[in-house]
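Q: What residues go here?
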């Protein structure tokens, strides 16, 4: 696929790097970028097992929506763009395989929300996170008011959203927003290391684990357990389940078929 505002790089047959690529505007999200993100996450490459998302340069993961582009839009056009942004958010949310955010600088507004859409976040030391929309007469519109409380707790999320305050990588780690904080030059190395750990496991099992977590998280316990049961049965019915047990008994690495 040929893109204008994002770059893709195949790191291995099973791991791909997606880079938000508008460095002249700190990788801000334009309508074109939104369309391209929607397209990418709606059409996963065959055999892909993990996607790592980062930004071009050392200053920014993503500075949020491109406000200069928005300045020329009327209310109807703004609403159409909002819908488009929601659509690419749904595409990332529903992506069946793990998505890791490698946050290499500022992640403000929609940029922070893209990171929240990923399964977990690895932050460089220079990363900054903020949902500053109230400073511009708005509120987060790409799921930030819903995903941030689920990630760090409602009270802490309200403080960050009501104030629009930015938090450092270390504070993000302490809040539970980031899983790891690493030196800037070690960011992709860490992300790839974790991606490789994921790839070592049975493909369908990882997909079903993600499905069970995502579908069950906002359900009551009994509904969530029913979701888990369905995903467990799907994994247990695979050839890979038999191979996993056989490999364990033979004290060797399993050869996953993805079937």
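A:
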């Amino acid at each position: 696929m040929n893109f204008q505002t994002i770059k893709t790089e195949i790191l291995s047959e099973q791991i791909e790097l997606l880079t938000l690529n508008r460095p002249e505007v700190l990788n801000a999200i334009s309508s074109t970028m939104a369309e391209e993100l929607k397209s990418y996450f709606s059409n996963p490459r065959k055999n892909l097992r993990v996607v790592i998302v980062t930004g071009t340069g050392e200053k920014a993961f993503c500075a949020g929506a491109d406000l200069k582009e928005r300045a020329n839009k009327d209310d109807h056009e703004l609403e159409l763009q909002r819908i488009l942004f929601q659509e690419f958010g749904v595409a990332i949310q529903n992506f069946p395989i793990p998505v890791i955010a490698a946050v290499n600088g500022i992640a403000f507004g929609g940029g922070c929300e893209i990171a929240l859409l990923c399964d977990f976040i690895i932050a460089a030391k220079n990363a900054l996170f903020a949902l500053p929309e109230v400073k511009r007469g708005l509120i987060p519109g790409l799921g930030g008011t819903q995903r941030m409380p689920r990630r760090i707790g409602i009270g802490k999320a309200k403080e960050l959203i009501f104030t629009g305050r930015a938090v450092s990588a270390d504070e993000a780690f302490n809040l539970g927003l980031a899983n790891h904080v690493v030196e800037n030059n070690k960011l992709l190395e860490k992300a790839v290391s974790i991606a490789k750990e994921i790839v070592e496991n049975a493909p369908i099992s990882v997909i079903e684990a993600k499905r069970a977590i995502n579908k069950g998280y906002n359900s009551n316990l009994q509904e969530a357990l029913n979701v888990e049961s369905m995903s467990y049965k799907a994994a247990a019915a695979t050839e890979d389940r038999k191979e996993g047990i056989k490999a364990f008994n033979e004290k060797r690495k399993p050869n996953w078929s993805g079937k």
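A: Context that may help when evaluating the design: The two ends are 27 Å apart (CA to CA). The longest strand covers residues 15-20.
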